[in-house]
Amino acid sequence: MASTQSLPMLLEQFLKLPETKPASEFINGRIYQKPMPQGKHSRLQFKLCDAVNQVAESQKIALAFPELRCTFGGRSIVPDVTVFCWERIPFDANGEVSNSFEIHPDWTIEIVSPEQNATKVIRNILHCLRHGTKLGWFIDPEERLVLAFLPGEEPRELNLEQRLPVPEFLELALTVNQVFDLLKPG
Question: How far apart are CA 18 and CA 172, in angstroms?
Fold first, then answer.
């Protein structure tokens, strides 16, 4: 992911710019446009949001969002999936989900695309953890690998039938193989 501008700018300036497709992120004074999602990426993103929301939304435990802009700690990033505990979700005066999330997610999930810079993606997960996020997943569909990031711990490499960690507020049992089985329709 290459920077799309050469001179540093302020976060406030970035937030006034029109949204781009695919989304752009603001990191260390620079704008970086995310790559266009491809099939595996989109399918995993959709199915993971759906899996979380099926067990958490009706009980008002949490909500999962695809491609939600989160602005905190001097960055404005758009993780592939963010999960927020219900009590932390910003709602507007009508009781609807707010358009602006100026808080860290409780759980962030990044699905790396073939042309995406894995280091930049991991740095966004680490930024989230430094600002209060409880869990980060880095999913690599090509390698069939998931790295789990927890605050204060080294990343855990998970594969095959290993069960993935989830935040304590959520009851969701998934193995690495089950995550990648989501790529198969039906």
Answer: 36
CA distance 110 to 108: 7
Pair 41, 114: CB distance under 8 Å: no
List the domains of the chain with CATH numbers: 38-181 (3.90.1570.10)
Looking at the chain, the number of H-run helices and the number of E-run strands are 4, 10
Q: From start to end of 40-116, where are the E strands?
A: 62-66, 70-72, 75-77, 81-85, 107-111
pLDDT digits (tens, 9 = 90+) for 97-148: 999 999 999 999 999 998 899 999 999 999 999 999 999 999 999 999 999 9
pLDDT at 114: 87
Structure-token pair, residue 40? 């595996």
SS3 state of residue 45: helix
Residue 143 DSSP code: T
Tell me the per-residue pLDDT of 40-75, one tens digit each, with 9 for 90 and over: 999 999 999 999 999 999 999 999 999 999 999 999
Q: Which amino acid is at 145?
A: L
SS3 130: helix
Q: Which position has the token pair 């949001």?
A: 49
Q: Are 55 and 36 in contact (CB under 8 A)?
A: no
| Locus of tokens 């990033």 | 77
User: What gap in Å lies between CA 167 and CA 125, rounded to an integer?
Assistant: 15
